[in-house]
Amino acid sequence: MDSSIITDLFREFTPMAPMLVMLLGALVMPAVSLGYKRRGGVAAVSLAAIAASLLINAVLLASGYSGEYGGLFGYDAFSGLMILLFQSVAFLAALVSASSTETTRLHFGAYSSLLLAATAGMMFVATADDLITIFVGVELASITSYILAAMKRKDPRAAEAAVKYVIIGGLSTAMTVYGLSMLYGVAGTTSLDGIAASLSTAGFSWAFGIAVVMMIAGYGFKIAAVPFHMWAPDVYEGAATPVSMFLATGSKKLGIVVFFKIFLLLFVAGSAVASFATEEVQYAFAIVAALTMTIGNVVAIAQTNIKRMLAYSSIAQAGYILIVMAVMSEYALTGGLFHMFTHVFMKGGAFLIVGALICVGVGEKISDYRGLGRRAPFLAFAMLVFLFALAGIPPLSGFTSKVILFSAAIFDGDGVMTQWIWLAFVAVLNSAISLYYYARVAKAMYIEKGESEAKLKVPAPFLAAIAVCLALTVILGVYPQLLLDFCADAASALFG
Amino acid sequence: MIYDLQIEIPYLLTLLLVVPLVGAVATAAMGGKRERYAKYVAGAFSAATMLLATVLLFTKDMGVYDESYSWIESAGLRMSYILHVDGLSVLMVFLSGLLVFLVTLFSSREGDRPNCFFALLLAMEVGLMGVYMSADYFLFYIMWEVTLIPMFFMISWYGGPRRHYAAIKFFIYTHVASVVMLIGIFALVFQSASGGVADFSFQAVLNGQFSDTFQAMVFLLLFFGFAVKMPAVPFHTWLPDAHTEAPTAGSVLLAGVMLKMGSYGIIRICLEALPQGAEHWQWLIIATGLVAIVYGAYACIAQRDLKKMVAFSSISHMGMVMLGIGCLSEAGIQMGIFQMFAHGLITAVLFMVCGLAGHNIGTREIPLLGGLASKMPLFAFFMMFGFMASLGLPSLVGFWAEFGIIFSFYEYASSNGMLWLIAFCLIALLLTAGYYLWAMQRTLFGRLTSKIDLSHVHDISRPEAAALGILCLLIIAFGFWPQAAFDFIEPYVGSLGAI
Amino acid sequence: MIPIEAYLAFAAILFAIGAYGVLAKNNTIVVLMCIELMLNAANINFIAFAAYSADAIGQVFVIMTITVAAAEVAVGIAILLNAYRAKGTIEASGLKSMRW
Amino acid sequence: MFVEYTWLVPLLPMICFVAVGLIGKRTPEGGAYLAIAGAAASCVISVLVAYEFFTSAAYHDPGYVTAEIEWFKIPGGFTLHFGYYIDSLACLMMLFASFISTLIFVYSKGYMHEQGAKKRRYYAEVSLFLTGMLGLAVSSNFLEMFVFWEIMGLCSYLLIGFWSFSHPEGDDAADNAASAAKKAFLVTRLGDVCLMAGLFVVLYSFGSLDYVRVFDAAAIHAVDQDMLVLGSLLIFGGVIGKSAQFPLLDWLPDAMAGPTTVSALIHAATMVKAGVYLVARCYPLFAQASEVMLFVGIIGGVTAFFAATMALNNMNIKRVLAYSTLSQLGYMFLALGAGGYLIALGIETGDHHLIAAGAAGYVAGCLHMANHAFFKALLFLCSGSVIHAVGTEDMRKMGGLHRKMKITSVTMLIGSLSIAGFPFFSGFWSKELVLETVMHASDYGAEGYLFTILWLLAVVTAFMTAFYMFRMWFMTFSGKPGHASEHCHGESPASMTAPLAILSAFAIGFGFTILFGFDALLSIGVEGPHHQFTVGAGEAKGFEYLSDIFGSAYTYLTIALVLGAIGIAHLMYNKRSVDAGRFNGGGESFVYKALTKRWWFPQLYDQISWKLGYGVARGVDFIDRQVVDGTVNGLSNAVAGGGELIGKAQTGDVRSYTWAVVAGVVLLFALMLALFYFIGGGI
Questions:
Q1: Model pTM score
Q2: Residue to substitute from D650, D668, D677, D679, interface A, most A β-carbons within 10 A
Q3: CB pairs under 8 A, 24+ apart, for B166-169?
Q4: What are chain A's partners, defined as 3 or more CB pairs within 8 angstroms?
């Protein structure tokens, strides 16, 4: 495909084109909300902004465009793919927000604006080539999401969740910045390429070690990696469900993208140097990954609130993705990217169903889902698919992506066995454990009898979003090639 | 070869997957007022599948058949849609088709959401056919897992009082085993990758070079996965629970064809791809088999629930399969495969009979029953027939399998100076006769029980009798002429040869 | 000239004081203030490194951090206000309706 | 021309089985005529086949004729066949089995007349039973034989348990029958398992199970002698189970729970004879080692004695007959064992005379088997006739039936005289030959003295046999009528008495065949490592037997003992001048108790099977539930409980979250340090 339309229009700003559109949308949104009394109109405009951004990105991605802006932003297959991911999340969130009873009615313009801004922040990170742009992008996404988390009507839990979110978020930011300052001190530059270059000559140092730990902790918060995960269940439970979905599928990926950007770049570039402590860092990540998936899954078993359960399951899923950081191979990255995508649709779909059901008065307890199979056959079926996909039951997308991700822990791309096979064991066993709590929901929906038999009718936008997620969950499962090639390209783009 | 009729149907193997799949969807759609007709739809589709599976027996080259299409080729992976049927799988495919049709016939009385019930049966058939036909690890694993879900729902919807516990236990336990197996599969596939492409097809893996240590390690992973499915002691405890709670149709398929997935996997994957691994762990396979045989038989004696007893007997008989495989001789493997087939036929009769006991009489507790032969002669006949077939009455199909397996084991034991091990098999044979006869004495014979209300008890209905009758005829037919099955198995085992 | 280690040590101490406050204080406003302290510790690092390597980027980063910190505090205070309105308290011990 | 149709012999009853099973209800008498026709046709064909085999010179050279088709193959070069193998032994079995069965079926028509809908099942099952026996007789290999062997086991199970539900005499009787049937099957199954193991040994050692290939001098030479002994003993294990020999003899008395005709079938024509047949058939194998044959003999002698003792004080007419069967079977094994012992020694030493003497034992065993088939069928059918008439099996309730049932009483007397070994009745000839062989065997070999003991046991057994048979006859037919006898309405119908008459003729006369060339027809090839010899070899001793038997003082001793025993029985149970209670201490003496309790065999079996079966099973079940499944459930509970525990760390207080973060950072530092230390790549 030819990207000349866009490059002509945006000229040297082309690498930032999708974000600029998104930002523009964010800026005009308050004004738009003045014009529309109803939320639908505002939502339509924000959807249009996202769609425009999506379109631009799609064209760029499909045309294989790559370019950079001032050493701060660079667009390549990797960033394009990640932008696509964030856009998808934003699209799903924006689609359902207006019809949800949980989201704010009065401040919907602001809500939409914040949503777009947060997405823009994430997209900036995806293209960022510099610590400063990464930092600012992450903060843009974070600070807006603090507010989003609080914007829920008539629920004191949202207020509490936002407080926890902002405090832990702030603490993490502080740690991150401290780590970044150390990194800057060691490397003398904030450009990622520059850091890689300078580190590969300077080797490892204590200061760099501090930087690594601080950055793992700070961005681990975004990912909700154990033990920096504790805010997540509370926030996901407290926030409006579309926001929870946005956070679980989008915000979490943001942290991972940062990890990919900084660590993969630094360590893969630096691993040529003998003194560079790649293996130690890999082990650290492996242990964090193992802990994250195990604790996420195990605690999820004990949950009775479905949003909390999904939150813990998200934590576990992040643990799976962290395998990439332990293995640090191109093949693993391919799997990780693919899993990030499949996770968007399966976890997003599950959250959307929860949100849709809240709109029609079904509670958040798993026990409230009893008899759902008869009350809302489509939703129940979709939920079943999402949960089984999350558990890694074939032929759904979660399975296919896990196959690649977990196999990456055993073998690198060249068929040589890695030392991370134990991690694969932990991962598959966790995957099996997770089936327990997913199956419990399935059981509640299909097997147990509910108190009410009344049919449920959920808002159409929810249905549409869920249908999209459902379709993609199945399609990416049976025909992963649709996306896998892009993931492979993105991985090779990042590895250079 | 009486079978060699050279019939050719294009896309036969794909049809074997598609027909039940379409059937499942069509049957599921027969909800609401149309649910009375669900069984006819399901019956038609399952009959069609059975016919196709039967036709497969008469195709060229004794049922050896291939279909292959490229599926996913990306990121250094190559997964293909390859279906392959040979002497090992053709009987299992036939058995799956047959049993699904027969349980559909058998369950025609099912009144609670019959559309879902029959749809689940057909969905299970898709998975079963897929497992036995796929020649690509990716497809194989998908199908392997696909069988779980319908069974999970089958147990939890239509099962007994503890169905939730049993269903979840079944689901999780076997899933844990599958994921371990999955790791083994990864190891195989990636170790054999060449040119930077990991090809998931069976053939590519067969071409791979594996060191002895690698084989020994990976064999264990795969073996664990399959052993749980079979199930081998001590990884068997999901089975009695699942069987006790599952509806009859579910039990029949579970014991009749799903357990065979385990032994099938051991032969198809462990033996074919990892011959040195198998040799290294031969003692383990044999020990597992022997323990299962004796342990299962003993456990049967103590059971009060008729169905649980039969479930444990399955463990014992699948132990026979394991033992046959463990001999790693042509005879042992051939007889192991034959035992898979034989046990599939026999255990279907047993579970149908136990299901009838629960359904018609209202209880399967052996101490509560007694003297039923006078009240339900046909039931008594089938029960006795099934038990006799299962305890290895010569001239019925089960005997030849057991005879062959123990003989192969004799060969093995004799050449390794461990002849005394044979005693375990013989003890188990005796115990098997013991628990079956004791159970019959307490249920069919003696005084008519007064512990339960028998006023509404009626004998077997026509469709049920038809299903049982067909199975019994097959048991007799293959008992008189086992060579009919050997004709398929022999060339395959011969090609396995090298072991 | 003051060695860079002194700056770094100062910043570390400042960071630790901030962390202590975050850990120990029940009043969430104080916690926010302590987070500011930690951020400033990082800023000192940046400035020190920038000064010693005569590189302006560090200072740019500090400006960015200050901006972000301001935004974060603004948002934070707003959220706390919101919480106060909803729950009647901003004590950490009072905000634990969601747990386990 | 007839031999080629041997396969029809077992097939015809099989067809009858299917036909009776399917359409028996619609034919008169529930398929009785079908079953009779099938058995009779088999009998006719058997006669033709046997006639041709014995008369045609073409079959004399190898002494057998066989034909087979390939059945299936086991990889590793094992081909299993299906076919027939006809030699004199097979002919003998085939003839008397089909003939006696025909008579029993005819008799059944009268005996089972009142059984209504159950008749179909009865005739179907007895037809299958006959299939089993005839198939066994003509099988061409061990495996085929084993199939029929087990079919017979199944049928005996079904027939013994014929009244195991809705018993005309009530629920207790039904329970009894169910239990007896199970016991019969299980105990014989124990033997069958041994037999199967024996087949494995043979198949592995010889590479084939076909008689022609196994009973081949070259093949036997090639096989490891230890394996040969092991295989022989295991096969004999199967025989012990099937023929109810010591120590597995307990099921047969219990098996009386079935209809009397079934008992007649089992005891006379089929089932238990299969064991004897198998030993005779396997003579070439067994006779390779004297210890095997010694073992056979000891088992036979001990069984003969023990079974006879248990018959002494039993009050159940059928049980007395059952014990007598055991006892007589013991004689057969004793004869075969002694003969085989001599042959084995002969093979070792190359002494022709020993082999010839041993051959006499073989002939004696086979003759006794045939004789026993006739007189035991006769006795059981007579007892059936009595039971049919009086409706009880308890001899104390009978008595004085002689006047009401003339034919029955006379025929039964003939049977009793025959079994007791009264001179010139058929039982006499064979029993004397048995005793003579045993006596002979005691003179040779290192273990010969054991045969002296066995001879003594056998003679005592002969005495006891005569005593309990006449005790039975007197208690039943003479003296004052018991209160059950009063219900007797006279003689049984002709369909029942006619077979009795025919059988009596054989019970009297069949023994004389020994004088007219029975031994010549019955030839079997026995080949050993050092020597080959064919027993019989077509040379009849004929009237030499007369001088053999009557030239020996021991013969007169046994005759005297038999007459004495009859006399004592007469005094005790007919004239009642001697009080039987004097000998048993009023039912309190140890011996009496031991006999009524069957030497505590049943208790022993119950204990063993209960402990080894159910006891262990309970243990396994406990382990299964608590340990194996307990581990599984424990693991899952631990995971779920762990989740709850870890979840508790989530207190809701944001400070605990910050603590976690800070602690996480510290731990990460520690982890990194540890990693640096252990991996050592770092600084």
A1: 0.91
A2: D668
A3: B166/B238, B166/B241, B166/B242, B166/B244, B166/B245, B166/B246, B167/A443, B167/B242, B167/B245, B168/A436, B168/A439, B168/A440, B168/A443, B169/B237, B169/B238, B169/B241, B169/B242, B169/D632, B169/D636
A4: B, C, D
